[in-house]
Write a structure and sequence with these properties.
The structure is a homodimer of 703-residue chains. By secondary structure, chain A is an alpha/beta fold. Chain A contains 22 helices and 20 strands. In chain A, the strands form five sheets. An eight-stranded parallel barrel of chain A has the order 7-12-13-14-15-16-17-18. A six-stranded mixed sheet of chain A has the order 2-1-3-5-4-6, with helices on both faces. A two-stranded antiparallel ribbon of chain A has the order 8-9. In chain A, helix 6 (203-216) packs across helix 15, helix 16 (496-507) crosses helix 17 and helix 18 (530-537) crosses helix 21. Residues 1-22 of chain A have low confidence and may be disordered. At the A-B interface, helix 1 and helix 22 of A face helix 1 and helix 22 of B.
Chain lengths: 703, 703
């Protein structure tokens, strides 16, 4: 038991070697040249000036060069064109139809920094915006519409993002971490930003990334891991130039750069004896340091902080609380319009499995809800969507309903740490949509999307899933998760199936595939329900975890059961689940507003899919579905594997129809998914059969 | 769940940072200056020449310089002395009494290469040997005897090692392995041989190590890990000089150097297209390569090979068997008297946990027993003492009784991979003694010690536990395991408690401690039964494993249960254990000669301590002890922790009595042992309580 086992560990920890960009053809993702055909074959006028208008001009010029169209960049309107991109507020206004559309759908609201109007003015399609970013988003909207953008019967449309802040967090390390590698929880090769301690040379690839993000709707990224190492800490000071370079590359696509900082920076970088947020010298240090950041990067977004969490430094060391800590940084950022994203992912990670009274699910609420109202207005408390840690199924975090006087952001995980690590197809749109539509005050109340929307909402944040992999995301189909994140952040009310359809249309355009309708049908069949399929063959009924410790890939039913991480299922010979009721459990259910507190409190009213998250029940407990818990476990695990096998079979029908490199990569990963799902099925079923002694009533093989 | 968890993994994988030798005072282990007091205060004559005689002279000179004695190196006997070290075969023979002793106890046998006679000749103590190594071993014998060596009434003694080959295998890597570090399964800091790709500079420390080994009886080491990496492979050819340097340092202490080689060396180093053992070019390559080794290191010991095991290359790739492979190397070594140690640790490490018919315990026998008689005489098949992998309790490997026409060595593990990793006190002497005294053909037959002894036996081999730690072994009390290994290899029949006593006397001499008798009593109380204590709080009744995967430290009851490593316990709600009977199980029990095959076959006759190794039984099964299996699990686990707590209490009585640095190091580790043993107790008890539902009949707390 030695080197090879260790090499296996190795393999799990560092899944993929970084690939040099120039060695490979990079997949165009949702912006293949063909997506620009309708636009590029037309006569286009661009009206307005500015960095982002230049980007629009470049995009249109490239498209026209390829597809035979023509482009004018002109301050006047007297050109005979098919399409106009125009900034409002220039001296000359567009035609009467456009004015009418503006007046008609306008209801007094401006288009804002990022919104745009799309309408027809006679034979001309007009995209009108109040600010350059609006034209850029309008451009990608026209790309998505293809020929439909030029339909004479198309009514006028106004588009504004529901969420002002649509941000990706890169958990990328500058220096390679000895265990976590270049990207913590990264499953797509190396980092797209850093390589072995230095910025990557390949700025063209980074620019291409910014372009893809803009086309999905994302407008901010943080450039380094929330776990801030020594090298990464210095991005704030003597290595600020590295951040500025990234900002320069992404700026033309309307993407602002944020930085994860260490709360201990005044000590580590500034040589101060303390990082106490109430210490005058510490405040001065942050103020001066932040001023320097803005001198270099005037549109810098702000700081992202993981404090007093899993070993990261924070205000607790000085007897201060999270509001003190966050306000310290907010004060320094305020003069420049910057924000602090302060993570609510704080819990006791030295828990004793013997102590059933401590409940990690309670922690974020217990720490943060009492602080509501104490945060400065440029603090955004960034809350993981669930109370534990990005599991395949969790309830929505009660923190999101508990801080009405605080700007809140929801944090999602696009990188598939717990959802198949981009080796499994697991399309997360439906899951995120459920989270965003969840109404924590009851069915008629505001939704999570409402909480994070608008001027006071903190928006949507996600941990990125991109690396230097030629398909960007390891699994080509995982691109759809990134795309869907951006589109949901723009409009959380959209149907995730419609977004997926949009992604399919863009990514597999007619000219790149022999039969686009076949591709569309097969991809929907494979992807639409893939998150629920993943749920079926992994941890049952919301109980969570049951993964291999460390790498979090593959089953490990008792993997975390006796650890200090607070992620238990308490399965014994009689039953399974965590009692989080107020009456007899940890009381977590009581952290919700009344409707859900009542619903979750009792096993009878608790939704099946969260039963074991909230209750410890006997294996014979009958679900709303009519099945017992144990039979449900068996049935879903057999079904999950059958569904994955069907996925693979369906994919095989695309052989020869699409780009062979995409076909092969997905085919390989589906093989692995079948293998892994089978392993999950067998381990989970065997585990519960050995514990419960209850045979499968359908008599299938359990080992 | 991220960086800190990974750092914890880090900590487990790389337990200790290497320490620069010159930063620390190195503990003298069992050769403190005080051990030489009786010798050093006397008049000593040394008679004879040669490298090892010079070593004796140096040792005696140093001792006399310190304690006021005097030394002569003279070809004549006419000096008035208290002690003579003399090589027989010189012209002049010692006195009549010596001649008489030689004739008396001699029964015709020569003293051999390493043996010696100790007797009195009038007022003179005489150590007589036929070869220089005998004088060196005689010297250390005199050291151990202290004043008793000069007792006029002491009868003459003849000493010859029962085992010719007494070897340590260093699993040290030359280049730091990304996961395993500098020493695979090393728990005592860095390597004493290598450091980051190069030989260590500190040759004085290495010489000191050789001296300690000689004083314990070890006469050979292999200098690199059996898992041979790219860098290590080159020790055979262009980096042979590194090996020669080590040989030069160790030679004065009678220690030969062996090398772990890669079976793929002809390809990797020689550029041949194959490593097929029957290929003529391959044979030539090994022949030429080996000749070069001997040109450089004339007393080179030979090759150690892990082939077709856990990913290492071997003859299977060419459709050849282990005899073909071993004989290839043996042929190359034969002209120079070198040997091949060919490991029998071969098994399928891609097992499917669902398949209960494959049994890793069977593998070594199934692979090797059919090859008996096919190995050249300079092949030693090196067999792990148990059929699985150095567990705290296993039966003795049936291979050791199955190959009468083959030279066999037993491989022990001094490094405490599965026995507390030198953080726990676990004195292994009693365990090894049980193995060596085991009589595989039944109580009246030959023992394992007999099998490996003498000219045809392959001797005893152990994986070393030493690093550059100032106490050599991390845990100061783990020194006793190293010492005991050497002494048992010299005389497997010795009582391990007597050996421990010897170690205590040498290591804690009167001048270094305020109360040697207190120290002796306390150390016996702590150490004598510590292996059984360790067994009590870990995996029960011989079932094995239940450790954390990867690092193998601490409990992980299901840690290997669903892996490919073939180390299962099959616990379900009704019972636990592996059915290895012939009648209903894997048939492993049938690999033993009739006495033990019958004994192990039935749960009724199987010894309690191996019950779950051989049988799957209900929790209510009544042991020979009268307890049920489940109650035995609870009782031993509570008892184990109580014993460790008592160890710590006893150790505390030594505060102020011994070297504070030893005291503190052991005290820290006992704290960790109490913590870890408690964790073992609670996890194992909880696991089996959850599974069985049977309460502890004494009502103690199970979580």
């Amino acid at each position: 038991m030695n080197a090879e086992e260790s090499m296996e560990l190795d393999r799990l920890l560092f899944v993929e070697e970084p690939i040099e960009a120039d060695e490979v053809r990079v997949h165009p993702a949702w912006l293949p040249p063909e997506a620009f055909r309708a636009l590029g074959s037309r006569r286009v006028l661009i009206h307005g000036d500015g960095l982002l208008v230049d980007t629009v001009l470049d995009e249109v010029s490239r498209a026209c060069a390829r597809y035979g169209g023509r482009v004018w960049h002109s301050p006047t309107w007297d050109v005979d064109v098919d399409l106009v991109f125009a900034l409002r507020g220039t001296d000359e206004l567009p035609g009467a139809a456009v004015r009418a559309a503006l007046a008609d759908g306008g209801d007094g609201e401006p288009l804002g920094d990022e919104g745009f109007l799309l309408t027809r003015d006679g034979d001309v399609t007009v995209v009108l915006a109040d600010a350059p970013a609006g034209l850029l988003y309008g451009l990608f909207h026209v790309v998505r519409l293809c020929a439909a953008a030029f339909d004479p019967a198309r009514p006028a449309e106004r588009h504004r993002p529901a969420l002002r802040r649509r941000m990706l967090n890169h958990w990328d390390n500058v220096a390679v971490h000895p265990v976590m590698g270049q990207v913590e929880r990264g499953y797509a090769g190396g980092s797209i930003l850093w390589r072995e301690g230095r910025p990557r040379d390949d700025r063209a690839r980074l620019r291409e990334y910014g372009r893809l993000l803009a086309a999905s709707g994302v407008n901010a990224i943080s450039v380094n891991n929330v776990n801030v190492g020594h090298t990464e800490a210095r991005l704030l000071t003597d290595r600020l130039g590295d951040v500025a370079e990234i900002a320069d590359v992404l700026r033309p696509y309307g993407i602002r750069v944020h930085l994860s900082v260490s709360f201990a920076a005044p000590i580590v970088l500034g040589g101060l004896p303390t990082a106490d947020p109430l210490d005058a010298a510490v405040r001065t240090w942050w103020s001066v340091t932040t001023r320097r950041v803005y001198e270099r990067i005037p549109d810098f977004g702000g700081y992202l902080v993981k404090a007093d969490s899993e070993g990261q430094p924070g205000p607790f060391s000085y007897g201060r609380d999270h509001a003190d800590g966050a306000n310290l940084l907010a004060e320094a950022l305020a003069p420049y319009g910057g924000v602090v994203h302060w993570r609510a992912f704080v819990y006791n990670h030295h828990q004793d499995w013997r102590d059933r009274s401590t409940d990690r699910a309670r922690a974020a609420y217990d720490h943060f809800a009492p602080l509501d109202g104490r945060f400065r207005t440029n603090v955004i408390v960034q809350v993981k969507h669930g109370p534990v840690d990005f599991q395949t199924r969790e309830p929505v975090s009660p923190v999101l309903a508990a801080m009405p006087a605080t700007r809140l952001a929801v944090e999602l995980q696009v990188t598939q740490e717990y959802t198949g690590q981009q080796r499994h197809v697991c399309h997360l749109g439906p899951w995120w949509s459920e989270v965003l539509r969840f109404a924590p005050w009851g069915p008629d109340g505001r939704t999570i999307a409402d909480v994070v929307a608008g001027a006071v909402g903190g928006g949507l944040v996600a941990v990125a899933n991109v690396g230097d992999d030629p398909f960007w995301t390891g699994h080509p189909l995982a691109q759809a998760n990134l795309y869907t994140f951006g589109r949901l952040a723009w409009d959380p009310g959209r149907d995730p199936a419609a977004i997926l359809d949009e992604w399919i249309t863009l990514t597999f355009p007619p000219s790149a595939t022999a039969d686009p309708e076949l591709v569309r049908r097969v991809l929907h069949e494979i992807m639409d329900d893939s998150w629920r399929t993943y749920e079926r063959y992994t941890a049952p009924l919301g109980v969570g975890f049951m993964v291999n410790p460390g790498d979090h890939y593959g089953p490990g039913v008792d993997g975390y059961e006796y650890t200090r991480w607070g992620t238990y299922h308490f399965a014994d010979r009689d039953g399974v689940g965590v009692d989080r009721s107020r009456a007899t459990g940890t009381g977590f259910a009581g952290q919700y507003p009344p409707h859900w507190a009542t619903t979750y409190e009792s096993p009878e009213s608790c939704p099946d899919e969260l039963l074991l998250f909230f209750h410890h029940v006997p294996y014979g407990h009958v679900l709303h579905s009519g099945s017992t818990v144990i039979q449900h476990i068996y049935d879903t695990h057999f079904a999950g594997v059958e569904e994955v096998t069907a996925m693979r079979r369906r994919w095989q029908t695309l052989r020869g129809t699409i780009d062979p490199s995409v076909y092969e990569r997905v085919a390989e990963r589906l093989d692995e998914q079948v293998r892994s799902a089978t392993e999950w099925r067998d381990q989970i079923n065997t585990y519960f059969f050995r514990k419960s002694g209850v045979p499968d009533k359908r008599g299938r093989e359990i080992h």
